[in-house]
Specification:
This protein is an alpha+beta fold. It has one domain. The chain is built from five helices and four strands. The longest helix has 17 residues.
């Protein structure tokens, strides 16, 4: 169950002890709560928005506690040559089949194994991954 101890899905931002009269934010790791949700937008809000923001632009409540700012997920298509949504690459990231240098120590959870641990059905895992992938494609800036 090591995959359930993750940074992203349900983060609690807590203030550490005052350091030179400033508060340092830290992220408390908590287990991912199982869900019956399968709609991409709902999955995004429950598991991704805490870091990437409800709008996907990278300004979620946990963003300032991370070592590296979360990506603006609405710009993935614009960052590729030809402006096409990089479906295959994004799916590989979600499944954990490829690493992302920007994630450094991998603050971003790998959702494939987490979704797999939430369900006895491989089909449900795939449904969630593809629903999340489709939602990410829908929120791309025009």
């Amino acid at each position: 169950m090591k995959y359930l101890r993750i940074w992203g899905p349900i983060l609690a931002i807590t203030a550490a002890l005052p350091v030179a009269s400033a508060q340092q934010k830290v992220i408390k790791q908590v287990p991912a709560r199982p869900t019956a949700l399968i709609a991409g937008k709902d999955l995004f809000r429950q598991y991704c928005a805490v870091c990437h923001g409800v709008d996907g632009k990278g300004a979620g409540p946990a963003a300032e506690a991370l070592k590296k700012s979360p990506s603006d997920l609405t710009q993935m298509a614009r960052r590729t040559s030809g402006g096409k949504f990089p479906e295959t690459e994004v799916l590989k990231m979600l499944k954990g089949e490829t690493t992302v240098a920007a994630h450094g120590s991998s603050d971003m959870p790998v959702w494939g194994p987490i979704f797999r641990n939430m369900s006895n059905s491989a089909g449900m895992t795939q449904t969630r991954l593809y629903s999340l992938l489709q939602y990410l494609e829908e929120i791309q800036a025009k």
